[in-house]
Amino acid sequence: MAKERFQNPTCGDDVNLRLLVYNSNNLKSVKSVDKVEIYFCDPEEVTQSNPDGRRLVETFTESDVVLEDTGKYLLAVSISAPAYTIGNYVDVWTLAFEDEDCSVANIENPFVVHPDLWFTTPTPPVYDFSLKFRPGRIRKGSKQYLIIHVTPNVPTKNDLNSYYENLAIVSDLRVSIRQRCGECMPVEEDLRLIADRCLVDYREKCLGYFFFDTTDLACGIYDVWFELCFGENLFITETNQLEIYE
């Protein structure tokens, strides 16, 4: 499973480098993605003319970039040694916009390659996590992201806490949403499932973002729960409630 740019990738991982393009507050595809260059910020290459020590690592062409949907671009990169090592990187996207009056632009985004997450303990991972999301009420017709915050439930703020925070960052996060059973609602659970263990693709450290479209959903109360998979453990949260109102 590929990691997102802020999911603490390590050497040997595949990482998804995403770019979202908007025009007048709407997703909009550009005329072309001419290239994507990845630079390593090498401390030994720092000069007055190169203050962050950029050193070119790899160049990708337009054929390497996937247009997932309007204005949503994805570049999958294998960050394997010796080309990649631990440190800071910048991916520079060269875009040609559709508007004739716009010139070619270079868009820069950072990511970090982290060291491997080694940890030793005489006991297995026995602690769990708290998962909270917002908003809890959404007006019908809204299309917005549910923001999910994962917090480890460990007894002290020490190395153990840091280890569990990293578990939360790199672990798969899934969401399920089910309409509450009531009048005129089918009793069968499968007919009331809006989202069934859907993978939360957009991740940023201990946060996850799940796009939720309420356009065709009925007003009422919905059950929401999450799954976090780490090692041999599968942590399933208690059921929370989400209201869609008129």
Can you describe this structure?
The protein contains 1 helix and 20 strands. With 246 residues, it is mostly beta strands. The chain folds into 2 domains: 3-113, Macroglobulin (MG2) domain (Immunoglobulin-like, Sandwich); 129-245, Macroglobulin (MG2) domain (Immunoglobulin-like, Sandwich). The strands form 5 sheets. Strands 12, 14, 15, 18, 19 and 20 form a 6-stranded mixed β-sheet that branches. β3 (22-23) and β4 (26-27) form a beta hairpin.
The overall strand count is 20
N-C termini distance:
39 Å
The helicity comes to under 10%
Strand content: over 45%
CATH topology assignment of the largest domain: Immunoglobulin-like
* Net shape: flat
Radius of gyration: 21 Å
Q: Give the helices and strands as they follow along the chain.
A: EEEEEEEEEEEEEHEEEEEEE
Keywords:
Immunoglobulin-like, 6-stranded mixed beta sheet, 246 residues, 2 domains, 4-stranded mixed beta sheet, mainly beta, flat
Task: Furnish the topology, listing elements before pairings.
Elements: E1 3-4, E2 14-20, E3 22-23, E4 26-27, E5 32-41, E6 54-61, E7 66-69, E8 72-78, E9 87-96, E10 105-113, E11 129-134, E12 137-139, E13 143-152, H1 159-170, E14 172-179, E15 193-199, E16 202-204, E17 207-213, E18 220-230, E19 233-236, E20 240-245
Parallel strand pairs: 1-2, 12-20
Antiparallel strand pairs: 2-8, 3-4, 5-6, 5-9, 7-8, 9-10, 11-13, 13-17, 14-15, 14-18, 16-17, 18-19, 18-20
Care to give the gist of this entry?
5% of the residues lie in helices and 51% in strands.
